[in-house]
UniProtKB/TrEMBL annotation:
Catalysis performed (reactions): XMP + L-glutamine + ATP + H2O = GMP + L-glutamate + AMP + diphosphate + 2 H(+)
KW Metal-binding (keyword) present: no
Keyword match ATP-binding: yes
Pathway this chain belongs to: Purine metabolism; GMP biosynthesis; GMP from XMP (L-Gln route): step 1/1
Highest taxon, organism lineage: Eukaryota
UniProt-recorded name of the protein: GMP synthase [glutamine-hydrolyzing]
Assigned keywords, A-Z: ATP-binding, Glutamine amidotransferase, GMP biosynthesis, Ligase, Nucleotide-binding, Purine biosynthesis
EC number: 6.3.5.2
Molecular function via GO: ATP binding; GMP synthase activity
Span of domain GMPS ATP-PPase: 2-194
């Protein structure tokens, strides 16, 4: 029967044989799949592996630091941390259409990643955390049609443009198996049980233009949502929970003053596979703490609403 221990032993042996003494690179996103793929590759080929982490300026609070701490400081990996925030935010200036945001970010990511990869010599292999559902999804007509609603990360994009061979050690695994493998490899639970986070990051949770100031506003709101969800012990029971910065400004009152600030929306959903989702019946006291903290701590946001739309007809993200 399948065990994470056996899987790790077999895969390490197989990857060693496949890769030999070649160099391997791996893009780290901070998500579960790429983290487990990187840890597995590291176990197999050690210093032959270089990981590339791109900070696109659209990450959640503390994410970039956590990735560096886990992989570089704790695991001793060769991690190239690239802060390309300015490049991404420059590219997004004036962009309000959701699909244009995705394309802008996707294209910029490829350029940044290619530049970083070109600095590393003698690379033959690109490791990716592709899972079995990703493989299936890109092969069935139904899913190709549904994927067109929003242009999600495509499995094929990056390697096609580069002369690398692919190493995909998780290709036959499902999510729960990937988590078991990650725990077996000693990755922290904060990474193993992390809620999914979209590649375009905070940009598709900011309705309207993505400016550095608005990213900062949303990042603060989002941090408060996650802190309160964690404190209430709910984080692992929820598929995704986050804040959205709307482009609606509303009138409020603070002491003796009238305010005119953005409305922030809170979204929390449960789902099996992100194809359908139901909004989470969050306890009122959790919602109350989130709302109080956001309006008191985030200057520029003066109203909080809770999104009670299921998918379908709503989507999980607002864009
Ligand atoms: P929707 O909003 O379509 O989201 O219900 C379904 C799942 O996909 C994630 N998502 C994305 N992930 N790039 C990604 O990597 C994207 O452009 C993107 N758009 C949505 C979303 O967070 C949810 O888990």
């Amino acid at each position: 029967s399948w065990t994470a221990g056996n899987f790790v032993a077999d895969t390490v042996a197989r990857v060693k044989e496949q890769v030999g003494s070649d160099r391997v690179i791996c893009g780290l996103s901070g998500g579960v799949d790429s983290s487990v793929a990187a840890a597995l590759l590291h176990q197999a080929v050690g210093s032959q592996l270089t990981c590339i982490f791109v900070n696109n300026g659209l990450l959640r609070h503390g994410e970039a630091e956590e990735v560096q701490e886990t992989f570089n400081e704790n695991m001793g990996m060769d991690l190239r941390y690239i802060d390309a925030s300015d490049r991404f935010l420059d590219g997004l200036r004036g962009v309000t259409d959701p699909e244009t945001k995705r394309k802008t970010i996707g294209n910029e990511f490829i350029r940044v990643f290619e530049d970083a990869a070109a600095e590393i010599e003698n690379v033959r292999w690109l490791a990716q955390g592709t899972l079995y559902p990703d493989v299936i999804e890109s092969e069935t007509p139904e899913n190709r049609a549904s994927a067109r609603i929003k242009s999600h990360h495509n499995v094929g994009g990056l390697p096609e443009r580069m002369n690398f061979s692919l190493v995909e050690p998780l290709r036959y695994l499902f999510k729960d198996e990937v988590r078991a493998v990650g725990l077996e490899l000693g990755l922290p639970e904060e990474i193993i049980y992390r809620q999914p986070f979209p590649g375009p990051g905070l940009a598709i949770r900011i309705i309207g233009e993505v400016t550095p100031e608005r990213v900062e506003l949303l990042r603060d709101c989002d941090r408060i949502v996650l802190e309160e969800i964690h404190d209430a012990g709910l984080y692992r029971d929820i598929w995704q929970s986050f804040a959205v910065l709307t482009d609606n400004r509303t009138v409020g009152v603070m002491g003796d003053y009238r305010t005119y600030g953005y409305a922030c929306a809170i979204r929390a959903v449960n789902s099996e596979d992100a194809m359908t989702a139901d909004w989470v019946r969050l306890p009122y006291d959790v919602l109350a703490r989130v709302s109080n903290r956001i309006v008191n701590e985030v200057d520029g946001v003066n109203r909080v609403v809770y999104d009670i739309t299921s998918k379908p007809p709503g989507t999980i993200e607002w864009e």
